[in-house]
Amino acid sequence: MPFPESRPRRLRTRPALRRLVAEASLEPRHLVLPMFVAEGRTEPAPIPGMPGVVQHSRASLRRAASEAVEAGVGGLMIFGVPEPQSKDALGSAGADADGILNTALADVVAEVGADTVVMADLCLDEFTDHGHCGLLDANGRVDNDATLEQYSLLAVAQAEAGVHVVAPSGMMDGQVAAIRAGLDSAGHTEVAILAYTAKYASAFYGPFREAVASTLRGDRRTYQQDPANRREASREALLDLDEGADLLLVKPALSYLDVLTDVVGVSDVPVGAYNVSGEYSMVEAAVRAGYLDRRAAVTEILTSIRRAGAAFLLTYWAAEAAGWIRGDSK
Ligand code: PBG
After folding, report:
1. 0.70 cut: is pTM over it?
2. How far is the CA of 205 from the centre of ligand 1 (A)?
């Protein structure tokens, strides 16, 4: 029997050696926590499909934001959930300085703005009575160009609330250019754009739609990408870069790690990934059933997203995982 010529196991023999040669790392600063704030709430309310995640009141959002920053997260992504009577066909509450998202953004910026990156979802679906990410034309179709004007108003309102990064998630063509122009002409040249570049029409947004009390009927297949497509994501990335995106995002993460790696390859700006609600809920459900070791599974998932090339990642586990990582390095 000849001895093996090469022995990769040699580098796996001791924890210190494995640590030395680890290719991907996970640090608290890589983790961005998505948070929901609901109009009219006085107490946080659990979201049934997402155990451990809540719809915040304005006060509980401030407290949770400060705890997450204390845990070391890299940033916060805020989503607003208006009351049904605040929704209309134009999603006007999104651009209203007194609307739930913009008031909550101002709260969070006042609370932790000096210590973290405050980001806002820039979309209409939470604010429209029909639940689509854009305005509808007379035939009920999503009107791309009319939507762009509305996005630009939302961006300016969020900037006035003090946000650092706006994150257009509606997948309208030309959204980055329209938002950049809107921000710049209002003097907000420092507000950065995190462009949802490759956002797929995914079943894994199910629990989120419950979290934001979505009124959507039908689906978003005329604007979100087809899960069958890979090369199209690079095309979207080049367009977003050309339009002035500062950061790119791929969403969901786990079924799209190939897409993430491709987008990282064509991008000269940092690329993030969004580990979405359904990806979170699947793990939490399996843990509750006793099928998975929670901390090991979560750590492996988040590390895999980093390994695929994400500079940062959005995850509902952000604050908790940041705490684990900090605990380990003590
Ligand atoms: C749309 C939006 C969605 C998510 C965030 N913003 C998805 C959608 O309803 O199409 C999903 C986030 C998640 O599932 O965690 N503005």
Report:
1. yes
2. 6
